[in-house]
């Protein structure tokens, strides 16, 4: 079984946001898959996808503070500055955290760990709506 | 062909550990696959998976020292501290290094480079046993 | 449909290089795939793959400068130094940026965003030719 859909996430403020429910709602066909994988891919270069703790709001805050310090906006040696001080830092964070997730599917569900949630990492101050492609492969 | 299994890795100390052999032993069915992929997924948020050099023990030591300095335990601004000083740093390192690997399968084997090994990155001081889901897709 | 090929990239200088066209040229079979994924895997531990902005040359320069500062060559505590001062830093950067990309395929093409290009991240001063395995799975 091959199933693919493209969804648009509502604009989020800069930071880390759990989107597990939005992913699940986009692939109801997963209920028919006994064994497989889901690939989630973000079609941008200033936002990324990761997995992390799905309960504590402090994890999201700490992630944001850490990555904002690790990759400051507007570093003095940046040459790519035309699109604003948060653009080049967003490109770097995106490559560091990654553009896609591949998650196993087992018995009709995403086989995530108990504490795992899917995160949208919005690295721009005003990133706008973000496009994702979700591909389900399985039997 | 779709094959999936879930395995539990014995507890490892904090650090980087080669687990290539354990992965291979869990998917003996790979011998029947001419072309495909294997997805290896870790069901936790404080340990991760990567690939790196499979011979020199110094690479593992240097990786550990580097990432421990890059993401120190117990940074003063961390708010997520209830689970101990090594918990939030573990969450950050896990997102940085990633939760899954997708490796090509060719002629019945993982098609890794000569020097590539699969690493478990244990970021907690006492992380305990770790669960992996391994999914093989191919023909 | 399962298709796999192994290609060798010409040696590149240390830095970030767009290789989207070389990937596309290696998988002309993609035109027959309506829904699927492509996995691109690099068989080395001192070079990596990522996605980033495909127009501005400054993005590539800034990426290189940033990662060279974040992971300096020849850190005083590195023990893995036999292969030269740029070897251990290359191993770390490779794990940070990752060894493989999984990109959706839609209607016969890589379904990348408008500004996304595929990057080879060459972390060694003289990395030589690099081997990639490209696997196409779809229908």
Structure description:
The structure is a homotrimer of 139-residue chains. In chain A, a hairpin with a 2-residue loop joins strand 5 and strand 6 (109-110). Chain A is elongated and about 50 Å long. In chain A, the strands form two sheets. Chain A has a five-stranded antiparallel β-sheet, covered by helices on one side. Chain A has a three-stranded antiparallel β-sheet with strand order 2-7-4, with helices on both faces. Chain A is α+β, with helices and mostly antiparallel strands and 139 residues long. Chain A has helices at residues 20-26, 57-70, 87-97, and strands at residues 2-9, 15-18, 35-42, 47-53, 100-106, 109-110, 116-122, 130-138. The longest helix of chain A has 14 residues, at 57-70. Chain A has three helices and eight strands; from the N terminus they run ββαββααββββ. Helices cover 23% and strands 37% of the residues of chain A. Chains in contact: A-B, A-C, B-C. Chains B and C meet through strand 3, strand 4, helix 2 and strand 5 of B and strand 1, strand 3, helix 3 and strand 8 of C.
């Amino acid at each position: 079984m091959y199933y693919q859909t493209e969804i648009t996430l509502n604009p989020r403020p800069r930071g880390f946001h759990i989107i597990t429910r939005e992913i699940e709602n986009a692939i109801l066909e997963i209920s028919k898959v006994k064994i497989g994988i889901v690939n989630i891919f973000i079609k941008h270069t200033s936002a990324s996808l990761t997995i992390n703790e799905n309960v504590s709001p402090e994890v999201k805050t700490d992630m944001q503070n850490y990555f904002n310090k690790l990759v400051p906006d507007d570093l003095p040696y940046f040459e790519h500055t035309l699109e604003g001080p948060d653009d080049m830092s967003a490109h770097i964070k995106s490559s560091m955290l990654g553009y896609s997730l591949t998650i196993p599917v087992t018995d009709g569900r995403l086989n995530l760990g108990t504490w795992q949630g899917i995160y949208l990492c919005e690295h721009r101050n005003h990133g706008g709506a973000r496009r994702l492609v979700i591909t389900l492969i399985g039997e």
